[in-house]
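Lesson 9: reading folded outputs for more than one chain in a single document. The general rule is that every protein is listed as its sequence immediately followed by its structure tokens, and records are never interleaved. Here is the first one.
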Amino acid sequence: MPDLMVKIPAEYLSERQKKLLRKKPRSKDEPLTSSGEKEDVFKVPHVPPFSKNELREKLMSEWDKIEGIVCANLVKSIPQRLNEDIKCKGGPTHY
């Protein structure tokens, strides 16, 4: 099986994890973030889960890492998202 790589934005990694991972070299063609800076992206090997229990454990550990404020902001933005979707008649929105 080939080694698959996933990209993780630096904001989701702890300082310790950033030190452990080797930084991907930047190219001129790499997209910029909304602030106009290049995004720090690290490559980590993707290891698929071998069982449903392992998948459940990985999912639960990732859900636990999400801060409450992120979920609160998403819930708060639902009316805006729905209104824009209605306005665009189900077409593409900026969300």
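And here is the second record, again sequence then tokens.
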Amino acid sequence: MKSQDKLKGIEPDQYYCIGSKKKIPNLAIEVVITSGGIQTLEIYQGLGVSEVWFWQNRELQVFCLENCEYLQKNNSQLLPNLDLDLLVSYLGDDPFDAIWDFKAKIKRQ
């Protein structure tokens, strides 16, 4: 995100533009160490970010922007084929081992 977005008080841990390069990302991901994660939804809403994920206490929360408000969902609307439970099962693992195991599971599907 550009410095102008930082001025609005938000800088996600990760962000992605899906489909094409945009000034505002489609997906923002925040790793919440302390409180305050979900309170940033209003800022993301003002920016028009389609989807925001919060990772906190080994749980992933997905919020999708619909009719100008965020609704919590069980799946990503931007990445509907992504198995979030499978993804979460690898978070926190050794990255090398997680990638090899994930590739093996994908090949079996």
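What the second record shows: The mean pLDDT is 84.
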